[in-house]
Amino acid sequence: MLKFLADVNIEKVLVAFLRDQGYDVLWIPDYDCRLKDDELLELSNKESRILITNDTDFGEIVFLQKRISTGIILIRVKGQSVSKKLHVLKKLFKHYSGRIENSFIVISETKIRIRSLEDL
Fold first, then answer.
1. Cα–Cα distances in angstroms (integers) from residue 56 to residues 24, 87, 103, in the given order
2. pTM of the predicted structure, to 2 decimals
3. Nearest 5°: CA angle at 112, between 110 and 115?
4. DSSP structure class, residue 28
5. Residue 71 CA to chain centroid, in angstroms?
6. Which among 57, 52, 63 has a CA at the least distance from the CA of 119?
7. Measured between alpha carbons, how far is 35 from 39 in angstroms, rounded to an integer?
8. Structural domain of 72
9. Taking a C-beta distance cutoff of 8 angstroms, is the pair 40, 5 a contact?
10. How far apart are CA 110 and CA 44, in angstroms?
């Protein structure tokens, strides 16, 4: 079963959805809101959790700095609409649940891009 680490910028509604689906989700506001990006990535790797975030800095951390990751889901929704974020997250799980682990995933209103992290 997949485990997740939801960044401080991920809304409680999204965390509740994942938990309702039976997933183990550590939500940073319940843990420590002062963690820096490097510390978040380290925690997600240590606990084998897929990081869910709105923070585009993780693309640079993973691809340019070549930092290993269990997986990242980057949500890019214009206007930060929670209902749109929930919709695209549900779409990801419905159609691509088997490709979430060990991937860098960018989801938006119009597309889902999945890049394997196993070859980095």
1. 24, 20, 15
2. 0.93
3. 150
4. G
5. 7
6. 63
7. 6
8. 3-116
9. yes
10. 27
CATH number at residue 22: 3.40.50
CB contact burial 97-117 (16+ within 10 A = b; e otherwise): eeebeebbbbbeeeeeeeeeb
Measured distance CA(90)–CA(93) in Å, rounded: 5
Domains in the chain, number: 1
Q: How many residues does the chain have?
A: 120
Question: Which runs of E-coded beta strand occur in 1-120?
Answer: 3-6, 24-27, 50-53, 72-75, 103-107, 112-116
User: Alpha-carbon distance 117 to 67, whole Å?
Assistant: 10
pLDDT (tens digit per residue) in 55-89: 999 988 888 777 777 899 999 998 879 999 999 99
Percentage with pLDDT > 70 across the chain: 99
Helices and strands per DSSP (H, E), number in the chain: 4, 6
- Encoded tokens for 60: 């640079």
User: Which residues, 6+ apart, have CB-to-CB distance to 33 below 8 Å?
Assistant: 8
